[in-house]
Sequence to fold (726 residues):
Amino acid sequence: MADKRIFNFSAGPSMLPEEVLRTASEQMLNYKGSGMSVMEMSHRSSAYDQIIKEAQRRLRALLQIPDNYKVLFLQGGASTQFSAIPMNLLRSGSADYVITGHFANLAYKEATKYGAIQVAGSTQEENFSRIPTQEELQLRKDADYVYLCSNNTIYGTQWKYVPQTQGVPIVADMSSDILSRTIDVSQYGLIFAGAQKNMGIAGVTVVIVREDLLGFQLAGTPTMLNYQIMADKDSMYNTPPTYAIYILGLVLEWIERQGGLEAIEARNERKAKLLYDYLDSSTFYQAAAQKQDRSLMNVTFCTPSKELDALFVSESIKAGMSNLKGHRAVGGIRASIYNAMPMEGVEHLVAFMKAFEATNGGR
Amino acid sequence: MADKRIFNFSAGPSMLPEEVLRTASEQMLNYKGSGMSVMEMSHRSSAYDQIIKEAQRRLRALLQIPDNYKVLFLQGGASTQFSAIPMNLLRSGSADYVITGHFANLAYKEATKYGAIQVAGSTQEENFSRIPTQEELQLRKDADYVYLCSNNTIYGTQWKYVPQTQGVPIVADMSSDILSRTIDVSQYGLIFAGAQKNMGIAGVTVVIVREDLLGFQLAGTPTMLNYQIMADKDSMYNTPPTYAIYILGLVLEWIERQGGLEAIEARNERKAKLLYDYLDSSTFYQAAAQKQDRSLMNVTFCTPSKELDALFVSESIKAGMSNLKGHRAVGGIRASIYNAMPMEGVEHLVAFMKAFEATNGGR
Fold:
């Protein structure tokens, strides 16, 4: 058992493709005959330059990022972007935030330090079990941007539509569903995502931003949070998180080998369907998110009692699965099934759920 | 040759102990029977909690950090601290900066966005070839802090004394000499360092700060740059750069095995002495920094001509050494000999230098 890898349902940092880990392990002491680890490379060296350029090229190709968008590799996690976004984009001072969960709310609160921020919609009263509809959104025509979180890790909901905003740029936190499906980047002003769910390891955050939005930062914006400077220096103003970008590149290569985002999306749909179909067929388990807005990445549910939830989690660990405990804010059970979770892992989980229901359903 | 590791004299990111890389490679797919890579661990898991706590404990022990100092593991590199320091510490609005090189100057410029910053000393007119003396420093008694950069990577100089500041806290950028020698942390208000020279990989920055300096951040300070919040959350406000902290822990373990900082310092002195003694005995090579302030970490010198400098660099690569080219701001040659550079690497370099002088000295 000590040698066996387990199915890791962690919400992030989370499972990585085993091939990526094998490559990283093999190249650790000597990257492609360079005589050194990627960890040891000067970020200004030609070997590293190729690594970071290839990562950007692959990301651009996979997401079909238009030429008028910059791709930045930054540090500080999505939480740092919660500050950087208003500091860079509040050119006239107002923005609309849609609150669909914990992280959208944090982003909103942070933005209120820097401008006149309004809540354009919220499902807090329904415990964030769904996404507001287009009709429910109260959007200002003159806002600098509309902010949303495309997938809500804690609650297990996901936006299934891109809102109409009458030309106001949409800023989207895609930390937990970037690269899980095809998107049309041109519908957004700015997309950002921490890497530690679908793209790699904690420590690098990708920002994809339309060029015309740059250059309007507030006075006092820290240099490292200034998108214009980061874009001008191609994410090399200072030493970037070199190894995290290397792992990102390996993950992007792996996605290419899977057949790109169409193939990844189809597989993610099959994985989620297996789990949701079983949840819907069961009277023992209760899914947390409303059907129309269910996330393909984070599946949230509970058993009939808190005690059984806890038993489920402890038994699942013995069955070779980890991190199925729901977030402390909502309890219950959460299965995060990002790109790197194989179908086999979901099948293993569903089989376990069935057996658990059979054993404990009569209590 | 493709399998052979080379002597990497890069100024940062830089050489790591081979033992650290071997351990990282071996644990890549399955960390101590956990069934997963450290890269894949939830930062809230008990396995990861032990990794980050152990890293902090080891750092505290090695540097003998007093209990009234907080240790933070942050992102964004030293450059992010150039903003965070004034935003957190300018409680009355003024600070004194000593300019001893490129990075001290960047820190100074960034700070001027946030308060009344004065230059307390500069050796720019002497091309930063030395450190100002205590007598040259013009320090205000009522400044919030005095800022210095303890080792100047580009110019090859290093502070050999801790200035008297009449109780004004000293803030020191130790990115390129932390853990290279023993220091008395209590002489500083705040010490910070990017990890990618002596501590690990790019992507984690250590901040060691005296508790009484916290809680005075300027309005508008981004949450992620607010030391008080990071301290209250023990660097876990959001997902920290988990893998970079793991590597930091492995490097700290390695330092312990070397005998701690006294042993490391003695070895660093021997390594530098070998190189400087040869430089001083040669009429071919010219050392760049003034003798009394020479860095033990970055040894800067040149040959009689730019052409020979370039030839030196290209020949050194063939001889199994990399990154000996001086920084573009000063030219010449620079050998960065951080903790992980073995004595054997310096001996190899000196032997190469002698042969190069013998061949090209007559030109």
Summary: Chain B has nine helices and 14 strands. The longest helix of chain B spans residues 260-281.
